[in-house]
Amino acid sequence: MTDLLETSAIASDFRRLAAEGRLDLPLPGGGRTRDRWRALAALGARDLSLARLAEGHTDALAILAESGAKPVPGALYGVWAAKSGGTGAVLDNGVLSGTVRFCSGAHLLDRALVAAGDLLVEVDLRDERIERDERGWQAIGMAASDSADVTFDRIPVGPQDVIGGEGWYISRPGFAYGGCGVAAVWLGGCRGVVGDVSAYLRDREPDEHQLAHLGAMHTAMAASEALLERTADAIDSGAVRDAKLDTRLCRAAVEDCAMRVLAEAPKVTGPTPLCRDRSFARRHADLLVYVRQHHGERELAAIGDRLLRERGTR
């Protein structure tokens, strides 16, 4: 019952923010990328499930703007592009089929941009041939994100529904910048956890070890924030030489920060708030699940390989 109430509250907040225009963020690369990422981070600090839905919506609006298409007025959007475990959508002769995992807002959204092979298509989610299966989402973290497996059963797709053409979705610069936007949300999630830790310590006399853990978390967050802001400025000034590398660096830095926060926070507080404070426990669990969108050592290996090739040693 508690999970349902939380999901309903998140859905209401999401719809209200969209209706008030507070999710009409500056487009990446348009001169105010810092502001865009700061807004996403603020949403992450507020609630990661809410931020996950908001980030997907704002990313979809940015994609549509970059392609020259216009969103349906008042519609809530998402981007569903996962290809986990061999699943994914396929477009064959104008018909969309297949199952996509990790579809946040599965019951809430009005429309979705769905990756189908090398194409991106816009889908009206009111189609009765679209099935949602909540059984595939068993996570405690991000439970309020309304995530499910979504199956498309031969949905007709017209030329007007294809966004950008073959290969456009992942080859455009905005794909990398969207990845940095997700990292900004993760950083906001770190702030939320550390804010809870700071509130816990205000009512106590912290020892030097607790203070050291708190200082370490703040240092990691400050470093990640500085990297994101430097990258945002480079994007807006046209100084980015390798968007994919810069995005990987930002995401790896924030992932490292998140893993530090997840490890250090319970050392400061002990188990009590994890067991007796649902808000604290949910923030911690949400961050643990959400940040695993990052591919860990595979991404770090890609960074190392890129740097060695740049220096001519590979």
Automatic annotation (TrEMBL):
InterPro entries: Acyl-CoA_Oxase/DH_mid-dom_sf (IPR046373), AcylCo_DH-like_C (IPR036250), AcylCo_DH/oxidase_C (IPR009075), AcylCoA_DH/oxidase_NM_dom_sf (IPR009100). Pfam families: Acyl-CoA_dh_1 (PF00441). Keywords: FAD, Flavoprotein. It comes from the Bacteria. GO terms for molecular function: acyl-CoA dehydrogenase activity. Signal peptide: none annotated. PANTHER family: ACYL-COA DEHYDROGENASE, ISOVALERYL-COA DEHYDROGENASE, MITOCHONDRIAL-RELATED. Belongs to the acyl-CoA dehydrogenase family. This is Acyl-CoA dehydrogenase.
